[in-house]
Specification:
The protein is of the alpha+beta class. It is about 55% helix and about 20% strand. A hairpin with a 2-residue loop joins strand 1 and strand 2. Helix 2 packs antiparallel against helix 3. The protein is rod-shaped.
Length: about 270
């Protein structure tokens, strides 16, 4: 017992120094945990405010928490005199090995982050991306879920989406319908144009502004082609499209204006 007391008396200054360092390291550890939690919650709230999928916000906030907490541990270890350089080197080597093994997944992760930041589309948009088209149902870290009009589910890797062009059909409030209607060369063009305009005027879903356009666009091989280009609200695009196709055919038939179709004339020559 006397030996221990003597040792304590002889090293009291050293013990006090390391005691203070240990207390400071503990304070750094406890405060760092609170800071990491605060940063994690702040990140999740920011994603909620941007109306990003909750799974994405939760995943990213957990990554933020892990990074801040790891930095806190390194600071606390450094405070009590533990050399962290070799520890960081080991973590770096391990991270490199994991990164090489999960190269494809990391590419999808990076692309998912870009989708979140750039927001080329959101849940509910109808898009064409990576060679596929459908309504966006979920935006996740590694993949995006699309649902086709015939109710098929497509799981698309985020890297494939960001490496190709993205067409978002839902972002703008209005869309233009582009139709090409051909009539015969024997048809009265003025009458045909009036018939097409009357069909558009009777369609209530067509917008007045911008105004529609009906013009002769081409003298084709077997028909005179009109372009018919009305504007509609994006939600009304397909119902209006299908309605116009049907009503234009009926109106042209009623006006005795023919719509040419490909046909082949076969001539037989009799040889004596």
């Amino acid at each position: 017992m006397d030996t221990i007391l003597n040792w304590i008396n002889e090293n009291s200054g050293l013990i006090l120094h390391y005691g203070i360092q240990a207390v400071i390291a503990l304070v750094i550890f406890l405060l760092g945990g609170r800071v990491a939690k605060f940063c994690s919650n702040l990140t999740e709230k920011a994603f909620d405010k941007k109306k990003v999928d909750k799974a994405v916000g939760s995943f990213v906030s957990s990554i933020v928490y892990a990074i801040v907490f790891m930095a806190t541990i390194l600071m606390a270890l450094s405070q009590i005199g533990i050399e962290t350089t070799s520890f960081i080197a080991i973590l770096g080597a391990a991270g490199l090995a994991v990164g090489l093994a999960l190269q494809g997944s990391l590419s999808n992760f990076a692309s998912g982050v870009l989708i979140i930041l750039l927001r080329p589309f959101k849940s509910g948009d109808y898009v064409e991306a990576g060679g596929k088209a459908g309504t966006v149902k979920k935006i996740e870290i590694f993949s995006t879920e699309l649902r086709t009009p015939d109710n098929k589910v497509i799981i698309m890797p985020n890297s494939k989406i960001m490496s190709d062009s993205i067409i978002n059909y839902s972002r703008e409030a209005t869309r233009r319908i582009d139709l090409v209607i051909g009539v015969g060369y024997d048809a009265d063009l003025r009458k045909a144009k009036e018939v097409l305009k009357s069909v558009l005027d009777q369609e209530s879903r067509i917008l007045k502004d911008p105004a529609y356009n009906v013009s002769v666009s081409e003298l084709a091989d077997s028909s005179v082609n009109f372009i018919v280009r009305p504007w509609v609200n994006s939600d009304d695009y397909w119902p209006t499209y299908w309605s116009l196709i049907e009503n234009i055919k009926i109106a042209l038939d009623d006006a005795d204006i023919t719509i040419p179709f490909p046909q082949m004339d076969v001539h037989l020559h009799k040889q004596d």
